[in-house]
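I have a small job for you when you get a moment. Can you supply me with one protein entry, sequence and fold together? It will help me judge whether the discrete encoding reads sensibly. Write everything out right here, beneath this request:
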Amino acid sequence: MGDPAPLLMSVQIHDISMPLTPDVAVFPGDTPPTREMLLDMQQGDHLTLSTLHSTVHLGTHIDGPCHYVKDGAGVESMPLSLGYGPALVIDAPGDGPVPASVLPEGDLPPRLLVRTQSHPDPNTFNPKYRPMSPAFMDAIADRGVQLIGVDTPSVDAADAKTLVAHHRAGVRGLWILEQLRLAEISAGLWHLIAFPLPLAGYDASPVRAVLIGPPAR
């Protein structure tokens, strides 16, 4: 078997996950992360042991269908093949719901990441971020996309009551990856790695998401 080191040295690995600090913003009304120290070596204990109290929609995360579909599956049911493979990053600047017209011509890979740059500060919740339109969700599903990733807290608007974009995802079988860090990422075709924890029956899971490049144009 050949040495993989030269191959690894020829690519760039970009962490596109939100840092999980006590200051990271969560959706209003959700549970921010706090750490409970059960044992602490700094206090003389023989080891350090802690408990994390937090929403599962923490930082960069994947929604499980049961988050927006009654009797939907848990996040652990996401096919692992969706968390690994080609992903196209596209730009969608502007205001209002992202329309289908921002999509490029040609084939789309199964994973599409949308860079709106409308929620730039991970520690401050900006309710005016740019959501996805239902027409956009239908258009990407029609073109074979199976996982949609966004750099915002949700594919729906902060004040949405009907969650139309989430519901279109449920109807069309799309998986949703939210709160990506894409500000330093160029548009183009990358390789995505992003897996949820196997939290059986849960409505979401934090992920460590990375892009491997440089991107193809």
In short: DSSP finds three helices and eleven strands in the chain. Residues 5-17+56-216 form a domain with the Glucose Oxidase; domain 1 fold (CATH 3.50.30.50). The first strand starts at residue 12 and ends at 15.
